Structure formats: structure tokens, C-alpha cells
Amino acid sequence: MSFPNIKIIGERLNPGFKSTNEMFARRDIPGLAKLAAEQTAKGASYLNINVGDLAESEPEFLAGLIKAVQKAASTPLSFDYPNVPVQEMCLGIYDERLGGGKPFINSIGELRWEMTELLRIRPCRVILMASERNENGRKVANRTAEEVYETARRMAERLLDGGYGLTKDDLYIDVSVGPIAADTEGLTRMAVQAIRRIGACPFLRGVHMSVGLTNLSIMLPAKTSDGQPFKELLESAFLTNTVPYGLDTVLGTAGRNYRHLPPDHPVLVGFNEALELSDVDALLRIQQLYMVP
């Protein structure tokens, strides 16, 4: 990987993956622990854990999984639940001595601010969801880079001033990305611009930025019509546009060959052109990249 400073939060312990979901259905904790170890061996710096509805219906399964994963992979864990009692259980079980550092709370947003009380349990890293904001108690989706930036800065200021003992190094701003194959509203462009805006802010210097990188290539083929690794190249194009401005963490698939693309690489050129387009024109430009003539 030609992005040596990028840290990967391994995403595979998640019911969104068919093979993982089958292991959840079998309650196959040894198999899941092996999967965790494989992600670490492929370069994951952290591991995300999300067992879906089982977190509430069978908390003993989640507890057993956390213990098994910590024995199999000495990697900090990210607990991916918008549920305070579930997070409390996860943080209570987590053994920092085995995990190599503070766990992650994934994720806190302006409309989930009650989750900040979890920081009283133990020192944690925090993923901050900047894709939406609180307006008079209502959830409002951010639609511009400036709105994402303002939300991120507001949350960072509140946490750093809140007496939780957090430093900037503990904060990870999640600048959300969705499937570019369905992006008719310029949300990918917004994410790229937001990363650049956040990266230019002196106050936020030292705060990390992250994205769920594989969300970008959902619904797209793994390879181009001439056999090139299309998903890897598309995700690499996104990284080429954002790593120089401060993106340093991705929730993604460990082992993918992410690399800096030269300015004339056809996928980077097409990706950048699609960012400037709107509606169906943007989708057609992405389609042209994998339908190589």
C-alpha cells in the first residue's frame, strides 16, 4: 500500500458480509476470532465489531466474541453501536492490556450526545459522525462541505472542553461517504471538499479523519471489463484526493492494494470528472470507467 500513514479499521466483523453473517448464525466464535486475526495479519490497525441485533438479544454472545477476539488479535477494538447499554457492556469487558490501547466508541453524533457519558467509564477514542447535525432537536442531514466542517468543529470543541480528558489524538471525524454508483446529489464531492476544509482548520489540526471507504464502491463491479481491479482503483482515487489533506483512517477491507494514482491515471481522471458532474451525468461517467471499450 502506497499510503503508509493510512490506518485501517477492519470491517469484516459485521453482519453486512454474507460469510460473516453465516458465522453469526452458527454462533461460530472460533471462526470469527480467526477472521479477526486474519484482518490484523493483513494490516488492520483496529477492528470494528458489530453483531447487529444479537448485541441486544444475546449479549452473552457479544461478550464471548469480544473476549475471543482480544485473545486472537492484539488490536484495539471499535464498538459500533448507537446504544448506550450495549456500549457500556463492551467497554466493561474490553481489556486494554490485551487490545494494545484505548477502544473506540463508534459513533457519537450531535443527536447521540448522551453517548458521551460512556467516556466516564474508561479512556476511549471517539468516532464523531459529522454527516448530520442537530437543529432544535431535529436531525438534519448535512448537504455542504461547510456544514460538515461546522458540525465536526462544534463536536470537537464540546468534547475537548467537556472535562473528559480527551486530546485531539483521541478524536476521529467520520466524513461519511455513500455509494458513488447512486450519487446524484454530489455527496462524494461534498465529502472530498469537507476533508479539505477540515484539514485546513488550525483548530482541528491533530484530529483524525475517517471514512467508511468501501461504502464508495458498493453496487459496482470488482473488476473493469478488461480485468483491472476497479473497486481498489476507485477507492485509491478517493484516497489520492483526500490523504494529502488529512484523511488518515478508513473503515475498510484490510489487504486491498490502495495506492496513490498518478494525475493521468484514467480512473483518477474519470473520478475527478464525475465529481464535477451532477445527476445521471455523474453516474454515467463512473460507468464509463469500468465499461472499458
Account of the 3D structure:
The protein has 293 residues and is of the alpha/beta class. It has a single domain, classed as TIM Barrel (Alpha-Beta Barrel). The chain is 40% helix and 16% strand. The chain is built from eleven helices and ten strands. The strands form two sheets. It has an eight-stranded parallel barrel. A two-stranded antiparallel ribbon has the order 6-7. A hairpin with a 2-residue loop joins strand 6 and strand 7 (138-141). Helix 2 (29-41) packs across helix 4 (59-72), helix 4 (59-72) packs parallel to helix 5 (84-93) and helix 10 (266-275) runs antiparallel to helix 11 (279-290). It is globular. The chain starts with 6 loop residues before the first strand and ends with a helix.
